[in-house]
Write a structure and sequence with these properties.
Blueprint (H helix, E strand, L loop, with lengths): L1 E5 L3 H10 L4 E3 L2 H6 L5 H14 L3 E5 L5 H14 L3 E6 L2 H12 L4 E6 L2 H10 L3 E4 L1 H6 L4 H15 L4 E4 L5 H10 L3 E4 L1 H6 L4 H17 L2
Helix pairs in contact: 4-5, 5-6, 6-8, 8-9
The structure holds erythose-4-phosphate.
């Protein structure tokens, strides 16, 4: 399973990169706004900076909602760097845009996925990645992980090549359960990735090893 970090914050991207396990980055308009990145020139420059930091797939989301706007933006984003993956929302125009840019050798991440039907449509359109939003489904008192498992089963049966990118991860346990459910990729806040490191028995065990070593060598 690939690990992407879900942020536009360069410090956090660098920290995730330094861990040595990072395969890519996802962003969205909210994450860009959170970093104060505004205006087309600054947005494109920020994506370029991310591409220079991480040698992996970098999802950059279109803002346009009509077909023409999406393909124009998609082409401009794809020109920034070969690792850019154009993130397109699951709408009627979005599906048509995914088909068009895919046919023009631009890779896509179909975002805002909340049902298996949407997942089938995105795969048919040729999306490279599919982003079901686990945390937002859980927020509605449904089970986001169940959706990942359902999509994984459908994609296996149908032989779809689209990679399932579990998004809207809120906890380290989401990462583990997404892996169990068959996700190809998880995109997570840095805190959830770092949360995977933690176990009190690891801390207790290490303290004991170090204490025994010190005692034996003093
Ligand atoms: C990533 O591609 C998504 O945009 C992101 O994971 C959404 O996460 P959120 O539901 O925490 O905003």
């Amino acid at each position: 399973m690939k690990f992407f970090v879900d942020t536009a914050n360069l410090e956090q991207i660098r920290e995730a990169q330094d861990l040595g396990i990072l395969d890519g980055v996802t962003t969205n308009p909210s994450l860009m706004a959170k970093e104060g990145i505004t205006g087309e020139v600054n947005v494109l420059a920020h994506y370029k900076a991310i591409c220079e930091l991480v040698d992996g797939d970098i999802s950059a989301e279109v803002i346009g909602t009509d077909f023409e706007g999406m393909i124009k933006e998609g082409q401009a984003l794809a020109e920034i760097h070969e690792n850019i993956v154009v993130k397109v929302p699951m709408t009627k125009d979005g599906v048509t845009a995914i088909r068009w840019v895919t046919d023009h050798d631009i890779r896509t991440n179909c975002t805002l996925i909340f049902s298996a039907g949407q997942a089938i449509l995105a795969a048919k359109a040729g999306a490279t990645y599919l982003s079901p939003f686990i945390g937002r489904i859980d927020d509605m008192n449904w089970d986001g992980i169940e959706l990942i498992a359902q999509i994984a089963e459908i994609y296996t049966i149908q032989g779809y090549q689209t990679e399932i990118l579990a998004a809207s991860i809120r906890t380290p346990l989401h990462i583990v359960r997404a892996a169990e459910a068959g996700a190809d990729v998880v995109t997570c806040p840095l805190s959830s990735i770092l949360g995977l490191l933690k176990h009190p028995l690891t801390d207790i065990g290490l303290a004991q090893f170090l204490a025994d070593h010190k005692k034996a060598n003093s």
